[in-house]
Amino acid sequence: MSTITRYRSRDPRFFADFDAIVRSTFAGQPAETSAEALAFTPTAETVRDGDDVVVRLDLPGVDVAEDVSVEVTNGRLVVAGERKDARAEESAGRSVREVRYGRFRRSFGLPGHVGADAVSAHYDQGVLSVRVAGVYAGTEPTKITITAGTPVTDEA
User: Fold this and answer.
1) Which pTM does this prediction carry?
2) What is the mean pLDDT of residues 38-54?
3) Which of 30, 65, 78, 92 maximizes the CB count within 10 A of its CB?
C-alpha cells in the first residue's frame, strides 16, 4: 500500500520531491526525495561564447575552495558541493527561513570530443563560471553544392 503525503502550500518538501521526480525522469539523475538532500539547487545558465560554452551557477555565500567540486565524469560536467549555514546554531529558532542550504549537484552533458583538459572554472562575486572550450568547434554546417546534369556513378 502506498503512502500519500499531504503538503501545505509553500512547503519546501513539495519542491524537493518534485525536483527529484523531474531529475530522475528527464536528466537521468538518481531520484533523491529527502528535502535535506535537495534543499539547495543553484540556478544555472549556459551561454555560447565563440566555440566555447560557459556555464554560470549562482553560488552566493558558498566557499568554493572548500565546498565545491567541478569534475568531468562519464561525458558529463558535474558541479557538486554544499551551501552551509554558518549561523545554524544562533538561528535555530527562527520561524521564517527563505534561504536554502544543503548539498547540491548539477550535471550537464558534454560532446564526445571534449575532455577534462578543456574545462576551466572561475568564481567571482557569487557566480561560478565554468568554461568548456571547443564544445561548438566543427559544428558549423558544411554547404554541399548541388550540380545539374548527369548523376555521378561509381562505375568506371
Assistant:
1) 0.64
2) 90
3) 78
